[in-house]
């Protein structure tokens, strides 16, 4: 029913988390981002931003032709609306979940991503950049911790797409130079989600791909050297 174009990165894991929780039938199509698979014409046809994940829903809710969706937050919202799961129907609950979903895609993901880049991949270790993004990641962990002091999950009382969006970006907390013990409410939330059977299954899906060799220098050029001209070429 669902074709998932995927690589085991935080954004990729978001979608397998949902699909496993919802019990939807899906097929994974690996998109090796360090090999340049994201620039293949057939992938660009469904993901014009040359980023994974993306999906094709072969059985959309309206019964019409297949629908393709790119951008991880949009995919989570689409799947939640398709299934009626992990997104409250009432206006207040839905607003809270979408607030935290967009908080992740606009804040936690980009900032933690820059943390990863300057701390792990950049050819030159720039202390200012590393400190900037480590500190901003820390601030965002604090935002989550304060929220989770009041409610069990980011969107409120129930597990939702907001949690699925944020959890994979907290999984590499050590790589981000953070300490979960400093954020007891966030740690409680993190451990709760980690123990969910669907979470365990979702991460198993990417294990074989994760075991592949680390990003090569050539792969870094592909990942981090993109311009409008190079993508077009």
From TrEMBL:
It comes from the Bacteria. Belongs to the GST superfamily. It holds the Pfam family GST_N. InterPro entries: Glutathione-S-Trfase_C-like (IPR010987), Glutathione-S-Trfase_C_sf (IPR036282), Glutathione_S-Trfase (IPR040079), Glutathione_S-Trfase_N (IPR004045), GST_C (IPR004046), Thioredoxin-like_sf (IPR036249). Gene3D superfamilies: 1.20.1050.10, Glutaredoxin (3.40.30.10). The lineage of its organism: Bacteria, Pseudomonadati, Pseudomonadota, Alphaproteobacteria, Acetobacterales. This is Thiol:disulfide oxidoreductase.
């Amino acid at each position: 029913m669902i074709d998932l174009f995927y690589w085991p990165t935080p954004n990729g894991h978001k979608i397998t988390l949902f699909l496993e929780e919802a019990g939807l039938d899906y097929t994974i199509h690996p998109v090796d981002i360090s090999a340049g698979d994201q620039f293949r014409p057939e992938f660009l046809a469904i993901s014009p931003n040359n980023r994974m994940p993306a999906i094709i829903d072969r059985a959309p809710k309206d019964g019409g032709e297949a629908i393709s969706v790119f951008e991880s937050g949009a995919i989570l919202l689409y799947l939640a609306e398709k299934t009626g799961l992990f997104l409250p129907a009432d206006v207040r609950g839905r607003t809270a979940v979408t607030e935290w979903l967009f908080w992740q895609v606009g804040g936690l993901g980009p900032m933690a991503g820059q943390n990863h880049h300057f701390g792990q991949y950049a050819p030159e270790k720039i202390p200012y950049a590393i400190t900037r993004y480590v500190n901003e990641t820390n601030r965002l962990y604090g935002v989550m911790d304060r929220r989770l002091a009041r409610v069990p999950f980011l969107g409120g009382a129930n597990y939702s797409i907001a949690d699925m969006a944020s959890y994979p970006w907290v999984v590499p907390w050590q790589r981000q130079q953070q300490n979960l013990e400093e954020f007891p409410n966030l740690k409680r939330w993190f451990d709760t989600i980690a123990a969910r059977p669907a979470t365990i299954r979702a991460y198993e899906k990417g294990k074989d791909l994760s075991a592949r060799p680390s990003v090569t220098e050539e792969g870094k050029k592909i990942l981090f050297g993109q311009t409008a001209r190079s993508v077009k070429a």
